[in-house]
Amino acid sequence: MRYILVVFAATVACIYAQSFKCPPKDGQYEDPVQCDKFYECVDGRATERLCPDGLVFDPTIRKINKCDQPFNVDCGNREELQPPRGNNLCPRRNGFFAHPDPAVCNVFYNCIEGEANEITCTAGLHFDEYTGTCVWPNDAGRQGCNPGANKKLKDGFTCPKDQKTDEAGQVVAHPKYAHPTDCQRFYVCLNGVEPRDLGCQVGEVYNEETERCDAPENVPGCEDWYKESDEKKN
User: Fold this and answer.
1) CA neighbor of 123 nearest in space, from 198, 196, 178, 193
2) Which H helix or E strand runs over 190?
3) What is the C-alpha to C-alpha distance for residues 212 and 214, in angstroms, rounded to an integer?
4) CATH number for the domain including 194?
5) 3-state SS, residue 100
6) Are 135 and 125 in contact (CB under 8 A)?
7) How does pLDDT run across 161-189, given as a tens digit for each residue?
8) Which of 52, 53, 48, 56 has the alpha carbon at shortest distance from 28?
């Protein structure tokens, strides 16, 4: 039965290929309605071909392999595609795809023949399927991202809207902030938006300059932090 289906499919493909009229020059030519289908013409005879699942045919490419990512190709009226053969992380076997959880906007997958390679955007950026790259959230226009955004801790702390950068001007992925009144405590904003209340071990205080826990004598204003705490207990 399987052999019969294969023969039938090959016969149908042959019929379609025969209906395509090759131009005088040998080469590869797009199908008029299906963007991932093309014809290879040799001596006026057409052979039907398909791009790997997830890629589409670009007749403007001068290379032998003219199959490319959809965001790089203008399919025009060639709106049809072959049936997808993907999986949970790879809707099609090849391409760049968003995380299946719509709330996770900074993670995407580069799928190569059904194998998913997870990639995380630079801090503060969201993945945009239309361009296959990480862009600013306003440019991505995705809804429901970062469920932790605008979250407020019990003491009222929220992550600042302005992104924190390092000395090289790069956005800090998980910026830290000193507590305004407690030398031992500090905050971390996961992905710049979701606040966490953390603290140094007993005997140390948070050093805002080094962004590490340090000895009290190294942090101006916190030199006597533990002495004052002991006095309050007594």
Assistant:
1) 193
2) strand 185-190
3) 6
4) 2.170.140
5) coil
6) yes
7) 888 888 888 888 889 999 999 999 999 99
8) 48
212, 215, 220, 222 alpha-carbon torsion, rounded to 10°? 100
Query: Which residues touch 15 (CB under 8 Å, ≥6 apart)?
Result: none
Q: Which residue has the higher pLDDT, 24 or 192?
A: 24
Distance CA 133, CA 140 (A): 10
pTM of the prediction? Answer: 0.59
What's the start-to-end Cα distance of the chain, in Å? 89
Instruction: Please report, as a single letter, which amino acid is at residue 87.
Output: N
Cα gap 67→51, rounded to integer Å: 6
Question: Going by C-beta distance under 8 Å and a sequence separation of 6 or more, which residues neighbour residue 166?
Answer: 172
The reply to whether 111 falls in a domain is yes
Domain final position from 138, 159, 174: 138
Lookup result for tokens 């203008």:
74
For residues 95 and 86, what is the distance between their CA atoms, to the nearest angstrom? Answer: 10
